[in-house]
Predict the structure.
Amino acid sequence: MKFKMAPNSLFAILLRSPWWISIAIAVAIGAVAAALLPDGWRVAGAVSGFPFVVVGVIAFVKQWHRPSAAQVERAQAALSSMAWAEFAALLEKAFVRDGYTVQRRQHAAYDFELERQGRRMLVSAKRWKSARTGLEALRALQAAREGAEAADALYIGLGELSENAVPFAAQQRIAVWQAAELAQGLRGLLPVAR
């Protein structure tokens, strides 16, 4: 049986929040315990904040390599000014660096077919400059994935997903890369602004 944390539990929310919030809660619990509990219970009360320290450390490790808002903004500006050939070459380089075998495809629903450790993924990226992605692009990618019997699908686009596209992507397990994910995935490969 796999353990899965409820998405809106306190610890799940703290894992998505800045790491220092969890540490601050642990310190606050320790301070309150030291101030209000009787002598025999102070240590036990202070130690009760330890789970928040653990969550803070986990959040810190997760957030360590995450791009900053300024890096995401620079990546979005750089990527939105690229032509398809340049953007496709950059994606291919990033996928190869991450251990994938990459094949470019001329399919209406996807542009790359990736394989790593026997697991295939179809990637749709040609509409990366679209301001908004609707359900039709994701449905086409999902149909192509089912037809090709690929395990995974990835949609890449700088714009937002429509209200109908968000739950569809989640339900069909289609990964979506937007500006933040692209800044992370293309780390070290994006042209440096001068």
The radius of gyration is 22 Å. Strands lie at 101-104, 112-116, 119-124, 132-133, 152-156, 160-161, 174-177.
